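Q: Trace token order:
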Amino acid sequence: MRTLLLGLDGVSQSILDPLVDASVVPTLEALLEQSAAGPLTSQVPPWTPSAWPSLYTGVNPGKHGVYGFLSFDGYDHDVVDATDVRAHALWELLDQRGRSSVVVNVPVTAPARAIDGAVIPGYVSPEDPPGHPAGILDDVRDVIGEYSVYGPMETPGDATLPEIAAHARSRGEAFSYLVEQFDAAFAER
């Protein structure tokens, strides 16, 4: 893998820096020591479903077409998905140039578009999102065990720290497995 983009939704440096300084997040601390990192000013509106397409397309909502959680057709509405994004994602541009990519748990990527590599969609997708290639989510679950888009904090009930940690670990295991399988030049998680 030549490039890794790790996005932490809703995590500002004012939250992350004290955790790194206190060595509470040693894995992130190690990644930051050998990486480029910096403040990122979100776009307007600064919501997850419009911000992520801005990040992965390089254009603002006026150009990619996603402004919030819902898309409208007159009075009819639905939750936004990748079909609402009117600009090419970075991994689609890399695919056009013969580069493979692995994309795991990135918001507003379902249904996954075909690329050289793998895509397991993230937030605002169904719990069992249509990934790429077809059947990739079942393959991942066969290898690593349980994998879900929505973790214990996003479902009713009280989540325990071990449950949250196991959910985060499963995303990392899925990502690692797919990077090995697809020999990706670019990976986003």
